[in-house]
Design goal:
Layout (H helix, E strand, L loop, with lengths): L5 H7 L41 H14 L3 E5 L2 H12 L5 E5 L4 H11 L5 E5 L4 H7 L4 E7 L11 H10 L3 E5 L4 H4 L9 E5 L13 E5 L2 H14 L5 H11 L2 H19 L5 E5 L9 H7 L6 E6 L2 H9 L6 E2 L9 E3 L20 E5 L5 H16 L1
Parallel strand pairs: 2-3, 2-4, 4-5, 5-6, 10-11
Antiparallel strand pairs: 1-7, 6-7, 8-9, 9-12, 11-12
Helix pairs in contact: 2-9, 3-4, 3-8, 10-13, 12-13
The protein binds pyridoxal-5'-phosphate.
Length: 384
């Protein structure tokens, strides 16, 4: 049989029914430890839940399958996974090149935790391949790519970046949070490791934090497995189970997120209160052609910049009714945020500073007409 469809795998991989009761949903193994049949007699290899837990195993096998990798790992948050990955890949003296509009927390992690540990960091526009090439140094170890990027929705060419990185012996990591594995699979384009904040589309319901790493590189996987156990920022069984439950509907949710976002981007495009709509599904987005090639859809995230500057952006953010003012993204409910003071507050004053007239929308799966009406009414209120 050929490989089952994504939606089939999302529902079945690692989800065998419970053999003792027939329960269609595997139990949540809410346990910290496991009885041993004599010293070292582990049932199924489980000894202690920091090292392994069957509910986490089912999530990790599912994540690996959906990203097309051999090894999947689940963590307590996206940043916890990123931290473990960076510890696995870097040693003091190494140099990291990072996209210049990655999630602010990712930049903060490297800049405030790894740079003091002896890591060099440069940020570069990952859509400018010549600039990326020029920023590689003899001690560069990691190219950190986020596409679509947060919050400017830039699209970077993963395959081209992999070619540049690998030619210089540099590992390429892709944060695939915005696209989700339903729309984009960086490992298939040559990336070495994929990271996710599963808090977003994978969990999908704004009710659980989590992070994921997927790789097919056995050596990296071995180091990550050791650090996951030795440091311990794992997802608990309940969080792993909630994430698995979310993933089962990923395909239908992301289809709807994308369709709603496309309709909203088109409705807002050209609005007199806005000077730009950042959405890769629009023909005039500089990354439109690349996104159409590299992704299977354009996703649910949109940013807009307001002609009225900071005051208008802040007022718009606080004027919607269905779009709720909150951090985060990727849940079924629509959210609106002001990156400069929220998700990207930590990069103010750095090269990653985001425009102060920018507003970010995480488009949910509500009725699209209601969402468009909410945004247009809020823009009316702002512009008087
Ligand atoms: N990567 C991206 C693109 C994000 O948007 C976020 C969080 O907003 C993270 C990573 C960090 O994930 P978490 O908040 O689960 O630690």
């Amino acid at each position: 049989m050929s490989q089952p469809d994504f939606s089939t795998r999302a529902i079945h991989t690692g989800q065998e029914f419970d053999p003792t009761t027939g329960s269609v949903i595997p139990p949540i193994y809410q346990t910290s430890t496991y009885v041993q049949d004599g010293i070292g007699g582990f049932r199924g290899g489980y000894e202690y839940s920091r090292g392994g837990n069957p509910t986490r195993t089912s999530l990790e096998s599912l994540l690996a399958d959906l990203e097309g990798g051999r090894h999947g790992f689940s963590f307590a948050s996206g940043l916890a996974g990123e931290d473990i990955l960076l510890r696995a890949l870097l040693a003091p003296g190494d140099h990291v090149i990072m996209g210049n509009d990655v999630y602010g927390g990712t930049h903060r992690l490297v800049d405030r935790v790894f740079v003091p540990w002896g890591i060099g960091l440069d940020t570069v526009d990952m859509t400018d391949l010549a600039a990326v090439r020029a920023s590689i140094r003899p001690n560069t170890t990691v190219l950190w790519v986020e596409t679509p990027s947060n919050p400017l929705m830039k699209i970077s060419d993963i395959a081209a970046l992999v070619e540049i990185g690998h030619a210089a012996g540099v590992l390429v990591v892709v944060d695939n949070t915005f696209a989700s594995p339903y729309l984009q699979n960086p490992l298939a384009l040559g990336a070495d490791v994929v990271t996710h904040s599963t808090t977003k589309y994978l969990g999908g319901h704004s009710d659980v934090l989590g992070g994921a790493l997927v790789t097919s590189d056995d050596e990296i996987a071995e180091k990550v497995r050791f650090l996951q156990f030795a440091v311990g920022p794992v997802s608990g069984p309940m969080d792993a189970w909630l994430t698995v439950r979310g993933i089962k509907t990923l395909a239908v949710r992301v289809e709807r997120h994308s369709a709603n976002a496309q309709a909203i981007a088109e409705a807002l495009h050209g609005h007199p209160a806005l000077d730009r709509v950042y959405y890769p599904g629009l023909d005039d987005h500089p990354g439109h052609e690349l996104a159409a090639r590299q992704m299977r859809g354009f996703g649910g995230m949109i940013s807009v910049s307001l002609r009225g500057g900071v005051a208008a952006a802040r007022a718009f953010t606080e004027s919607t009714e269905l779009f709720q003012l909150a951090e985060s993204l990727g849940g079924v409910e629509s959210l609106i945020s002001y990156p400069s003071e929220m998700t990207h507050a930590s990069v103010k004053g750095t090269a990653l500073e985001v425009p102060e007239n920018l507003v970010r929308l995480s488009v949910g799966i509500e009725g699209v007409d209601d969402l468009v009406a909410d945004l247009l009414a809020a823009l009316d209120r702002v512009t008087g």
